[in-house]
Design brief:
It is a single chain. This protein has an eight-stranded antiparallel β-sheet. The radius of gyration is 18 Å and the shape is globular. It starts with a strand and ends with a helix. The chain folds into two domains: 3-144, no CATH class; 157-209. It contains seven helices and eight strands, in the order E-H-E-E-H-E-E-H-E-E-H-E-H-H-H. A hairpin with a 2-residue loop joins strand 6 and strand 7. The chain has helices at residues 19-22, 51-58, 90-96, 120-132, 157-169, 180-187, 191-209; strands at 3-9, 27-36, 39-47, 64-73, 76-83, 100-107, 110-117, 138-144.
């Protein structure tokens, strides 16, 4: 059965963590992870920094090979990074066990990840891999990914919270009774994170209820 694990990690355990040394007010949120063999190329949002400062802030980390600005919305910047395959950190440990990252948020206080394995054994293997490689993680929650009010929905707790809160606030009403910002404030996350959770949640609900399998 698919299993979800949440864990925290010090800033230095993740390649993007080097940005906090020079820009302590920055917030980094992983947007999308693209597997390539046993490695990943992440897309992530950076907030609280000027565009000209972003690339220089990552240059000191041995794991970062290339960084590219993809898009920007006001003071938020969508970046694409490539890692040095020889660098072994959390990303590579996740990729080697085929663990999906559902969310990842980094500040100068550390990283918080929510990940999913196809089985509980996958999660266990990831933990063992981190221990063997001296990668510091602090596990805060582990639970089975169960269907939510319907066979096959398999929403995460975060996705369900986003959808239910948006519904109860009137975000899906016509006309809307609240904005995306209102819902994000109610949950305590950014608008970009909320948008991502709603999109993934909608995708799972549509696949489970409207699409012929």
């Amino acid at each position: 059965m698919a299993t979800v694990m949440e864990f925290t990690s010090p800033v230095e355990e993740f390649p993007l963590g080097s940005i906090f040394e020079n820009l302590p007010e920055v917030r980094v949120e992983l947007e999308r992870l693209v597997p390539q063999d046993e490695f990943v190329i992440p897309y992530f949002w950076v907030r609280g920094v000027e565009a000209d400062d972003i690339e220089a802030a990552f240059q000191d980390h041995v794991g970062v090979v290339n960084l590219e600005l993809i898009d920007s919305i006001e003071s938020e910047y969508l970046m694409r990074a490539e890692w040095n395959p020889a660098y072994f950190g959390i990303l590579r440990a996740l990729a080697e066990e085929d663990i999906a990252i559902l969310s990842g948020v980094g500040t100068n206080r550390g990283w918080h990840f929510e990940v999913r394995g196809e089985t509980r054994e996958d999660i266990s293997d990831f933990r063992s891999n981190c221990q063997a490689k001296d990668i510091s993680i602090d596990i805060t929650a582990v639970h089975a990914l169960l269907p939510v009010q319907g066979e096959g929905y398999e929403l995460t707790d975060a996705q369900r919270e986003a959808l239910v809160t948006a519904y109860e606030c009137g975000y899906f009403d016509s006309p809307r009774r609240c904005s995306l910002a209102d819902v994000a404030d109610e949950i305590g996350i950014t608008q970009q994170s909320l948008s991502s959770r709603l999109r993934r949640g909608h995708n799972k609900l549509i696949a489970a209820t409207l699409v012929d399998q």
